Amino acid sequence: MRTGQISVQSENIFPIIKKFLYTDQEIFIRELVSNAVDASKKIQTLSRIGEYADEVGDLKVEISIDEKKKTITISDYGVGMTDEEVEKYITQLAFSGATEFVNEWKDKDPDQMIGHFGLGFYSAFMVAKQVTLVSKSYKKDTEPVKWECDGSTSYSIDKGKRKKRGTDVILHLTDEDAETYLSKWKIRELLRKYCRFLPIKIEFDGETINDTEPLWTKKPSDLNQEDYKKFFEELYPSQDAPLFHIHINTDYPFSLTGVLYFPKVLQALDNRKDRVQLYSNQVFVTEDVKDVLPEYLVLLQGVVDSPDIPLNVSRSALQSDTNVKKITAHISKKVSDKLTEIFKNDREDYQNKWEYLDLIVKYGMLSDEKFAERMKEYCLVTTTEGGFHTIEEWIEHCKINQTDKNGNTVILYTTDATAQYMSVKSVKDAGYEVIVLNGALDVHFAGFAEGKFEKVSFKCVDSDPVNKLIEKEESIESVLDKEQQESLETLVKSLLNEMAFDVKLESLPPQQEFLSIHKNEWERRMEEYAKMGQSMPFGDLMGKKKSIIVNTNNILAGNILTKEADIQKEQLQHYIDLALLEKNLLQGADLERFITKAKSYIQD
Ligand code: ADP
Ligand code: MG
């Protein structure tokens, strides 16, 4: 036996390893099992290229726990290591890797990291007070070797006892960690999380943990719909079947495989669970892929596997990494290609799926210029009558009847066909058509589409009185003279809280409402931006004022002026109440007063 000192400048690396990354302590399993898998794959390769002539045998990685001895053992039948190799790879190489890693990360926030690849073998010391490694190399005439290290900088190397080729790594857990990890349930959970799709069989407690050939590693031409469906169920049990999938299989200029599913969920924005999983050579890395994938693609489900995504770097570095950018662009292109394909092959199918595609497509278009360019012709709008049209088709359609005096085509929309029922109706009575924009991003999307298409503007049906929504050439004289208008205005104002309402007198066609309430299109948009947490320009200046529009040409305007003061007041109050009621703004004591009054009419 001989002993040695791990040469380090910084006192002792192990306490540091142990202490930090504490939250991600469990990754020791991933690291050690990955090493065992790597060693097993190496023997396969050596055999294939003729460097190893003996039987490769049944390759598997076995994990076992011993509650009495407080150990976890990871065993493989891989290449193994000779005495010199242990010295070199474990003591020097692995150690220098770990040192480098610690030096880079010790002052940083552990939360900044995703996947801590790079720590490798020494992650064992996050849970073990002592590690024993016993190995026998595949090389002829070599002796088995035993290496031991107690978490200080000294270690020992001795002859080992192992007959079969391969390596055992035995972790002697600290008392504290033993409590957490010496449980079959816990180890199985961790193996299922990190090792579920590793390419070499993983066994624990007599059970095979993994699927060595997960779907995404296979050729799409060898798979059918049922295979994709099954895999989805395996990943996300008890969820609705997805709408369709995209199989990604690229090896140049980067390696990227994966299967993405379009989920059948309507409000995907709120549901952060069960998203895309990131793998690196079939090793699970993270479910937190929001720095690798643009946010609209995080809404998808499935698996992305790429060894070309750097895993031990900070989030900001990840986002600016050229490979990551290319990978993202590639995935985004695949997604738009697939959508385009469905649209072109079977538009009806596409329309049927649209309610689920809507959010992701729009989110993508809003956040990714290139995606927007590619999807522009395939983004649909739906009308209140249930029809589907591409934006371009709809604009063309509206040009004829809904172009204003300045040549702008006005697309009328409703954010809620029930709440805005009366506005929708009056707009339709005027011969216009209405689309439904009731999604979380729709009002933003309207602004975006205005920028993409020339001379097009979107207006909510209740943002103005009907004939102001799409202004035509005609101008209408007011029936009331200046003096009458002023007294009407004073009257209305006396009955309203001027902080909440702007009173505007307009000479509209006589058949239009006497009194109506509107939320200006611009203010509606600003409110939506605020909801999404975006800063508003001049936010402070903007009240939540709504407009009360008084149509001076409605016959009621003239009539009311001829009444006596108290009747005037009572009638006007009633019209204001009705206008408020229509917009669901009549509340509290005002509502109570209104209802009491309405009841009294019945009793009369
Ligand atoms: P990495 O896996 O990134 O190379 P590690 O610290 O995990 O870094 O491992 C260091 C080296 O130790 C490996 O490259 C390998 O040569 C050797 N090694 C570790 N575990 C095993 C094993 N189970 N069988 C054979 N060699 C191993
Ligand atoms: Mg490793």
Outline the structure in words.
The protein has 604 residues and is α+β, with helices and mostly antiparallel strands. The protein is built from 20 helices and 22 strands. It has a 9-stranded mixed β-sheet with strand order 1-6-5-4-7-3-2-8-9. Strand 5 (145-149) and strand 6 (154-159) form a beta hairpin. Helix 9 runs antiparallel to helix 10 (347-367), helix 10 runs antiparallel to helix 11 and helix 10 (347-367) crosses helix 14 (442-452). The protein is elongated and about 115 Å long. The N and C termini lie far apart (110 Å). The model has no long low-confidence stretch (mean pLDDT 88). Bound molecules: adenosine-5'-diphosphate and magnesium ion. Magnesium ion binds at residues 31, 34-35, 120.
Side by side, the strands of the main sheet go: 1-6-5-4-7-3-2-8-9
Question: Uncertain segments of ≥5 residues (pLDDT<50)?
Answer: none
Helix vs. strand class: alpha+beta
Q: How many strands in all?
A: 22
**Mind telling me the C-alpha Rg?**
35 Å
Largest sheet: 9 strands, mixed
Q: Could you say what the CATH topology of the largest domain is called? A: Heat Shock Protein 90
Oligomeric state as shown: single chain
- Which ligands does the model contain, each kind named once? adenosine-5'-diphosphate, magnesium ion
CATH superfamily of the largest domain, called what? Histidine kinase-like ATPase, C-terminal domain
Number of helices: 20
Cα shape: elongated
Report the top-level CATH class of the largest domain. Alpha Beta
Give the termini separation. 110 Å
For the residues shown, what is the average pLDDT?
88
How much of the sequence lies in strands comes to 15-25%
Helical amount: 40-55%
Question: How many separate domains make up the residues?
Answer: 4
CATH architecture of the largest domain: 2-Layer Sandwich
